[in-house]
Specification:
The chain is mostly beta strands. Helix content is 0%, strand content 48%. The protein has strands at residues 4-9, 15-20, 25-29, 40-45, 52-57, 64-68. Strands 1-2-3-4 form a 4-stranded antiparallel beta sheet, with no helix packed on it. Strands 5-6 form a two-stranded antiparallel ribbon.
């Protein structure tokens, strides 16, 4: 079970990124438009020291930026 705090999806691609309470960013394969598919986790990005609170696509859609805040 992944407890998601924030997510970002770019309509032209088949991936959704979610930021989680476990300080990771997960990559989900959700299929292409018009194709029925259950989402599958295909990757986990680590490195934050706190829950991931922000995600954003770079304008050219080749990069996703994640942010966390340690108070």
């Amino acid at each position: 079970v992944v407890l998601t705090l924030v997510c970002v999806f770019y309509f032209a691609y088949r991936y959704l990124f979610s930021g989680s309470f476990d300080a990771c960013t997960y990559i989900w394969d959700i299929g292409t438009p018009g194709q029925e598919k259950n989402a599958q986790c295909v990757g986990r990005l680590v490195g934050h020291e706190a829950k991931v609170k922000a995600l954003a696509w770079h304008p050219d859609a080749r990069l996703v930026v994640s942010g966390a805040c340690v108070v």
